[in-house]
Amino acid sequence: MLALVDCNAFFVSCERVFRPDLEGKPVAVLSNNDGCVVARSAEAKKLVPMQATLYSIRHLLQQKRLHVFSSNPVLYKDMSRRVIETLQQFSPEVEQYSIDEAFLGLGGFTHLDLTDYGHTIRRTVKQWTNIPVSVGIAPTKTLAKIAAHVAKRSQPTNGVLNLETVDDMDGLLSTIDVGEVWGIGRRNKAKLLQAGIKTALQLKQSRDSWTKKRFGIFGLRTVLELRGTPCFAMEPVAPPKKMRIVSRSFGHLVTELSDLKEAISTYTTRCAEKLRQDNLLAGCFTVIMRTSYYQKENQYSAARTVQLDPPTNDTGRLIQVAMQLAEMAYEPGYEYLKAKVIATELVQADEVQGSLLGGPVHDEKRARLMATLDQINSKLSTDAVKYGAMGLTPTWGMRSEYFSQRYTTHWDELPSVNIE
Predict the structure, then answer these.
(1) Could you tell me the CA-to-CA distances from 23 to 17, 180, 218, 323 in Å, in that order?
(2) CA distances from 398 to 247, 249, 253, 401 (A)
(3) Are 172 and 166 in contact (CB under 8 A)?
């Protein structure tokens, strides 16, 4: 048995932790660059659809019928860490599936009433982090996802559903849209609908040979999981990262190469920091830039890639490479909306194969420089010390008109209490 713990409207819940006055009120969180709605409270779902643009809901803000926040990834990531650390008190096997979901292995817990145990998990997470969660308990990951989906939306469950206690499993699966099944996705849902499969029950009852032919071994495993046969094992240890991506839209359309270089240098710096945190080196580096998809004319996109020999996570070297790639990709006369850097062919820093023709794999002086840079920026603030290529006063930055404080990670933004 295992459990899927899913944070309810996670981004909204993170904002409400430090704004208890918003409890019970419609709240929405926007995507990067204040683009569109990506998270809604239950109250906000009655007012705005998912992916609604900020422009389309401004009248609700002006009428004070809706509270909106810009994306605050630093806060959300730290709150996610706190939730995961809380869950580790309840199982030796915790697999973080996403920023707001985690699987818990419950093997050996059969002497307990798992429904009560789920309620204990739910109460403890709420008490320790103030984040509300739903808990789905089942013999497979796919069924646990369905159980959590139902627990989140069904009041009688009080946030916890153990499928072992459900008398009519087929009846429950017949109420689940096939698109809600873990791993199906939009394209597979469209194929299933064309074949007349609309519910999780119909997918469960599909023929194995047909499923494997149309959706491969992964699709067959999903069907077997719906039948109660575990096919996706717990992965408490995260698999090795295959790439690192840093991507942002600009606050306004950019036309100058100098502005693009500043943005790409900043993204490259963030990418290098992540590589060093994971003790990884990049063997390949890519820079991508594009115009807006919504422009009917004058569209352009380009990607340029270079192999790195030897692999590196040195910010200075990566910025140098990124600047060359940016010059190669840039075409004047276009209005650019977004840029992206991607580090691939990642290897552990202590497992690099040397080359007779390449340079030295390890540069101790540069490694100490990067470690010192990270230490200073960690103690003081992000970019307290930075490369000049990032610019001093960037004008291309993302819009974040409704940005909240980073309450848990920045000294100058800690919440304060007024006692009168």
Answers:
(1) 9, 28, 41, 47
(2) 11, 6, 11, 9
(3) yes
| pLDDT confidence of residue 392 | 85
Q: pLDDT tens-digit profile of 345-378?
A: 999 988 777 666 655 667 889 999 999 999 999 8
pLDDT tens by residue, 159-194? 999 999 999 999 999 999 999 999 898 899 999 999
288: its two tokens: 């991508």
Count the helix, strand and coil residues of the chain and give each as a percent rounded to the nearest 5: 40, 20, 35
By three-state DSSP, how is residue 94 classified? strand
How far are the Cα atoms of 12, 246, 327 from residue 267, in angstroms, in the given order? 26, 6, 16
Report pLDDT for 180. 94
Map out the domains of the chain with their CATH numbers.
Answer: 1-163 (3.30.70.270), 167-239 (1.10.150.20), 244-390 (3.30.1490.100)
Cα separation, 40 vs 415, whole angstroms = 23
How buried is residue 405: exposed, middle or buried, by Cβ count under 10 Å (0-12/13-18/19+)? middle
Distant-in-sequence, close-in-space partners of 12: CB < 8 Å, separation ≥ 6 = 27, 28, 29, 39, 40, 41, 44
pTM for this prediction = 0.83
- pLDDT at site 322: 96
Provide φ and ψ at 229, rounded to 5°.
Answer: -100, 115
Burial group, residue 119, by CB count within 10 angstroms (0-12, 13-18, 19+): middle
Nearest alpha carbon to residue 346 among 229, 241, 196: 241
The CA distance from 380 to 317, in Å, is: 24
- Whether 405 contacts 8, CB under 8 Å: no
